[in-house]
């Protein structure tokens, strides 16, 4: 009976009840607002840090790229200055001598023919047994387009600037099969060497090694000469 009376009393003072609730709610609102302000500050500072980190990340990506390019150039230069074996040097001198004999004006036609056949014989041995095929020119295979039923596919091509051995293949080269990283490849775009490059290659064949190395060194700073890592040595 008593409790009912008390309840009735409370019901008769609605103003006081909601004033307490408003006070509680206002405090909760203040607390929440200040929490939002505090957390928003953290969000802004983290966002700023992310922007900063992203720009630092880009900077370091660029630095790594630059260093990798530099590494490639240094490694390419190292390949240029790698010693050749004495056997290679001796065999190439022999080849160059036969080439010079062929050009002599003071010999008979028969002697010139003999010099030519000695040159061919020597070149074959040199290509197969002595040349390290370190400096190559070539282009990559193209798998063809679906719109052409892959009829426009073509194989990779490589030619050795030292001994003129050349080879076409879709995947694994049999003769010019240096491990990736052990060869310098001038990668020509498209599917053929232009006349200038063909002539340049031919012209290098009978020049002293220094001329070939100078030729490569002069072009190594551009974007074309690269240590080729793209195709692996056949198993
Ligand atoms: Zn070669």
What can you see in these coordinates?
By secondary structure, the protein is α+β, with helices and mostly antiparallel strands. The chain is built from six helices and five strands. The chain folds into three domains: 53 residues; 49 residues; 103 residues, no CATH class. Helices cover 59% and strands 9% of the residues. The protein has a five-stranded mixed beta sheet with strand order 3-2-1-4-5. The longest helix is centred in the first third of the chain and has 67 residues. 13% of the residues are buried. Bound molecules: zinc ion. The site of zinc ion has 6 residues, from loops.
- The radius of gyration computed from the alpha-carbon positions, rounded to a whole number of angstroms, is 39 Å
Q: Report the sheet with the most strands, covering strand number, pairing sense and barrel closure.
A: 5 strands, mixed
Number of strands: 5
For the largest sheet, list the strands in their spatial order: 3-2-1-4-5
- Average pLDDT value? 85
Q: Give the total of domains.
A: 3
Shape: elongated
Q: In sequence order, what are the helices and strands, one letter per element?
A: HHHHEEEEHHE
SS-derived structural category: alpha+beta
């Amino acid at each position: 009976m008593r409790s009912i009376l008390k309840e009735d009393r409370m019901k008769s003072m609605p103003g006081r009840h909601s004033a307490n609730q408003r006070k509680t709610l206002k405090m909760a609102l203040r607390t929440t607002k200040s929490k939002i302000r505090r957390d928003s500050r953290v969000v802004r500072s983290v966002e700023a840090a992310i922007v900063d980190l992203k720009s630092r990340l880009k900077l370091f990506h660029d630095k790594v790229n630059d260093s990798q390019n530099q590494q490639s150039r240094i490694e390419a230069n190292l390949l240029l200055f790698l010693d050749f074996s004495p056997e290679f040097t001796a065999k190439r001198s022999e080849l160059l001598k036969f080439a010079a004999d062929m050009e002599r004006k003071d010999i008979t036609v028969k002697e010139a023919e003999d010099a030519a056949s000695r040159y061919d014989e020597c070149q074959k041995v040199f290509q197969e047994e002595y040349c390290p095929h370190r400096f190559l020119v070539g282009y990559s295979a193209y798998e063809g387009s679906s719109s052409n039923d892959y009829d426009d596919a073509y194989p990779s091509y490589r030619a050795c600037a030292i001994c003129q051995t050349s080879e076409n293949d879709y995947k694994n080269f049999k003769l010019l099969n240096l491990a990736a990283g052990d060869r310098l490849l001038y990668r020509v775009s498209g599917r053929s060497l232009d006349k200038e490059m063909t002539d340049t290659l031919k012209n290098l064949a009978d020049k002293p090694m220094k001329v070939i190395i100078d030729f490569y060194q002069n072009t190594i700073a551009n974007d074309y000469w690269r240590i080729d890592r793209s195709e692996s040595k056949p198993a």
